[in-house]
Amino acid sequence: MTSDLVTLIERHRPLILPGVPNALSARMAVDVGFEALYVTGAGLTNTNLGMPDLGFLSLPDLVWQVSAISEVVDVPLVVDADTGFGNAVNVQHTVRRLERAGAAAVQIEDQMSPKKCGHFEGKEVVPAEEMVGKIHAAVDARRSSEFLVVARTDVAATEGIGAAIDRAGRYAEAGADILFVEAPRSTADMRRVTTEVPGVHVANIVEGGLTPAQTRAELDDLGFSIGLYANAAMRGAMLGMRRILDHLSEHGDTADAAHLIASWDERQTLVRKSDYDAAEKRYAAENYTRES
């Protein structure tokens, strides 16, 4: 599975990676043609806890969601593991749990715990040496050499883009397969990242965030291998839910709201109900009744 992710990154310029906060959205993303997915920590926190991305997600929460998603889609999953849920030894445990759950890659960042969304104010980072140790631990913990480690740095927010570029280089030397400089604030800074640090780079495009939005062609020109849209699907779903709930609140029914909701057939098709119906018939007791 992980080798598929390497192939996809090499094939696409850049690979567009949509974020999914649950198994249903993962199925939808695959149905429309995406070949790899990003399990978003912010999306899981917002969707399942109703809380902001401030480090509230636990490792068991994350493992459960990754297991659920990997059960229903057969594409590589890049999993946002925040700070790794502790020190370097904890990172090893995190990597092993997520790899067993079905992750193809794990992303670890250098923020202090509890972390904050990369586009929030007030972030703090650990010393670079501590993060280097975490990367070495993650590399040593993976069972498959094809499992990828994504190293994210948030230091641009506190020390500037030069410090972020320096850290990205150190993280690559430590064994990170993919580099993620969070929240560069200009196109010039984005180009510096990919020019000054050779490797596979992620551009995190957050609608309304700190990094200037780019088209896919522009990301390619800037040298990025992956374009991450971590919470676009979730935010689209939020808008859809708000519209149908507004309608229900105003009118007291959904009689004229068919245009606001997926049809019954679309819903059952997405969750593959026909497959379960077929299995129920195949394994029905009457198929195995002995003749007297």
- Sheet with the most strands, sense and barrel status: 8 strands, parallel, barrel
Put simply, the count of helices is 13
Instruction: List SSEs in N-to-C order.
Output: HEHEHHEHEHEHHEHEHEHHH
Strand order within the widest sheet? 1-2-3-4-5-6-7-8
Radius of gyration: 21 Å
Distance between the termini: 49 Å
Structural class label? alpha/beta
List the helices and strands and how they pair.
Elements: H1 2-11, E1 15-20, H2 23-31, E2 37-39, H3 41-49, H4 59-72, E3 77-80, H5 88-101, E4 105-109, H6 128-141, E5 148-153, H7 156-159, H8 161-173, E6 178-181, H9 187-196, E7 200-204, H10 216-222, E8 226-229, H11 232-251, H12 264-270, H13 273-282
Parallel strand pairs: 1-2, 1-8, 2-3, 3-4, 4-5, 5-6, 6-7, 7-8
Task: Describe this structure as you would to a colleague.
Helices cover 48% and strands 13% of the residues. The chain is of the alpha/beta class. An eight-stranded parallel β-barrel has the order 1-2-3-4-5-6-7-8, surrounded by eight helices. Strand 3, helix 5 and strand 4 form a beta-alpha-beta unit. The longest helix has 20 residues, at 232-251.
Give keywords.
292 residues, alpha/beta, 8-stranded parallel beta barrel
Quick structural summary:
By secondary structure, the chain is of the alpha/beta class. It has helices spanning 2-11, 23-31, 41-49, 59-72, 88-101, 128-141, 156-159, 161-173, 187-196, 216-222, 232-251, 264-270, 273-282, and strands at 15-20, 37-39, 77-80, 105-109, 148-153, 178-181, 200-204, 226-229.
